[in-house]
Specification:
The chain is mainly alpha-helical. It is about 70% helix and about 0% strand. It contains six helices and no strands. It is elongated and about 50 Å long. The N and C termini lie far apart (about 45 Å).
């Protein structure tokens, strides 16, 4: 039951990210930074998809996705590639949550990014991380729309 709720929430927020990325007036606007705003919406989108594909896909799901965290904050791709990466992240989440068991959720997360935490805790943390960056993207887009 929890995994179904999490799947729904992740899908909802990733849909929101995709809608934000699509709403930018130009591809160039996705990559704008300014005083006090170090990360563009494009780089935040790369970071969201890279983070989720890494932790859900590679760590929990056993996929062969290889994360390039440096590229997430310095690279640049087309709007379509951003949207495709978000779709891939959604698939990694959906596939992983469909296969995960209650026992796995209660076990320690395989990577000690925050010390000894359960997989359930880490999945909830990742959701908060996603929504935090979604808010940044939304604010960035609205600032540019002035």
């Amino acid at each position: 039951m929890l995994t179904q709720h999490l799947t729904h929430l992740y899908q909802r927020e990733l849909t929101n990210v995709k809608e934000e990325i699509a709403a930018y007036k130009s591809e160039d606007a996705l990559w704008i930074t300014s005083d006090g705003i170090n990360n563009s919406a494009g780089n935040l989108s790369l970071h969201i998809s890279g983070n989720l594909q890494h932790f859900f896909g590679t760590i929990l799901g056993g996929t062969d996705y290889e994360r390039d965290r440096d590229f997430e904050f310095s690279g640049k791709v087309s709007r379509q590639e951003l949207l495709d990466d978000l779709e891939a992240a959604e698939k990694a989440i959906t596939d992983t949550l469909a296969a995960i068991t209650e026992e796995q959720l209660s076990k320690l997360f395989p990577v000690k990014a925050f010390g000894d935490v359960t997989t359930e805790w880490f999945i909830l943390h990742l959701y908060g991380h996603l929504t935090y960056h979604l808010g940044q993207i939304n604010y960035h887009r609205r600032l540019l729309d002035k």
